[in-house]
Amino acid sequence: MSRSPGTVNNVHLGSQGRISSVSVYSDRAEVIKMYKLAVAAGQNKVVVDGLPYTLDETSVRVEGRGDATIHDVTVSLPTRAPPPTSTSPELLLFSDQREETTTALSRYRKALTRLDRYLEARTEHYNNGGAPHAIPDDVGSLMENYLEASGKYDDKVLELKRELRKIDKAINEEHAASQKFVGSGAPCPYQATIGIYAEEGTEVEIVLKYVVIGAASWKPLYEIRANTESKDSPIEIIYKAAIRQDSGEDWTDVPITLETAKPTFGLSLPALPTWNISVYTPPPPPPPAPPAPSSRYAHLTPQPTGYSSIMQQIQETRDRRAGQLGEEETEREGVVHARTYQRSRAPPPPPARRSVPMQITEASVSSSGLGVNATFKVPGLITIPSDGAAHSVTVAKLKPKGRLSWLAMPQVGNGVHLTASITNSSEYTLLAGPSTVYLDESFVAKSKIPLTGPQGGFTCALGLDPSIRLTIPPPTSSTSTSGILTKTTCTSYAQRISVHNTKNAKVENLRVLARIPVSLDEKINVRLVEPSLPAPPASTPPQVSSGTPTSPPSVKESSEKSSIQAVGVAEGVTAWWYSGNGSEMNGVEDGAGGQEGKIQWNCAIDAKAKVDMTLRWDVGAGKDIAIVGL
């Protein structure tokens, strides 16, 4: 049948579209829906209902596939139907039943109260009128009648209470059901109206894209699994994402893409204003106010002009003196000095105004290392209901390059810390996020992974390793005095350190850090005796020397960087000066570390083996010098 010109074909799709893909950002998500429909020749008005109320109206885009043309797209909220009355016949019936039950319950409670009063009155009558300890003849029948009546009323009260609870429950359910339609404040879903023109009747496919704001997000999560028995790949990272969404529609069996881009709105290029400077010009001093003359000596008061002239001369003299005293300090601070009258009253010069350009946060590196943002495609089809709960999905299982190492600081504690130096050898960008750490399938710690691009690295603490035991006996010391005219006191200290590997495998990369005191005064000399390390480069503040005397370095030697000079202490144990606080995996392991008085041993301990190390140092000073800090 032919259609008359100007007739519009109305097509109502409802909310039956299929979600084909979802891209989740940190605070929003882009949803793509597919619709298939048949359009007639001429104008067609396609109405799509049930779009989530969290969508951004300006983000709606429509694309089409087929022999037709999209003319216009309109997004609006449908008109809400007038709400029905909040009072239903069922609710009125339940209210009447509740009133009747409450009245009956009150009546039976009053009956029980009056029955108790009647029994008390009869008991009082017997006590007042009868002989002491006499039992009336009718007391038995009285008590039986009381128990029978009170039991009947008690049962009725319990029955009415149960009935009242049932009525209250029914009333609450009826209220909840009516609130779904009456003034609940629930937002209406959006509606999209699409105008399509076709030369002839055909089937088309509509792709509807929109963004939901504030109703979807994702955050990275990690599981770091370390295996101390594995030599090739001891570290495994499970890359996860916690996805939340309460947009109002479920994402069922949908391919999900995780995006790290953060949209910005209203951001323009910063402007760099001119930075002007000038000589400070103080404000003119206020004229001095003459003191109020008394009436008795008013004729002796000098004229204002003469008094002002005298005060000006006095003030100029004060200014010259103040200028001479403050000239040196003023020149040192680089401040333009302006001599004025009433210097003490003049305000200080204002600070120079300096415009700071607007800072823009740098975006993260893409997973491929070529762009500015990372994009992760979650493998498989994912279902995320609209419940606002965090749903964890696995992005990838990574086998990064990792090296396990152990760190002990006997002078800080007797625990041995296990750390992992990890290199991101994958194509994924590791975003900053929390991680759970498992050591040999046992949960040991919670940590955080910093933002790490491909081929980047970070250090992860794996907690204490109880299978490596550290024994630290108390240090020993002995004091001797030498010198004839000038007495010098030398105190020798010794600290033994023992490390026991109770594992069934060899432990490598075990570091032991210790320290000797550093002198801040040239009158105190600290000398390292054992291990016998080369003398560190000369440094004025710290006074530390090694057991082997050395000549002062030449200018050429001082300008060159010291190379790593390790000394073998025992089989599998080397020692050298260390620079750092111990938290770094790779400190500055060169001679400069001796200026801080820190020594490092690197150990490789066989299974079930033990290694002993000794730290000896001398502290020398004048006999009458009191040393603080030992």
TrEMBL record:
Q: Which organism is it from?
A: Coprinellus micaceus
Q: Where is the composition biased (Pro residues)?
A: 282-293
Read off the PANTHER family from this record. Answer: DUF4139 DOMAIN-CONTAINING PROTEIN
Please report the name of this protein according to its UniProt entry. Answer: Mucoidy inhibitor A
Q: Name one Pfam family in it.
A: DUF4139
Q: Which residues form the DUF4139 domain?
A: 212-539
Which InterPro entries does this entry report, sorted A to Z?
Answer: CHP02231 (IPR011935), DUF4139 (IPR037291), DUF4140 (IPR025554)
Annotated region (Disordered) at: 282-335, 531-564
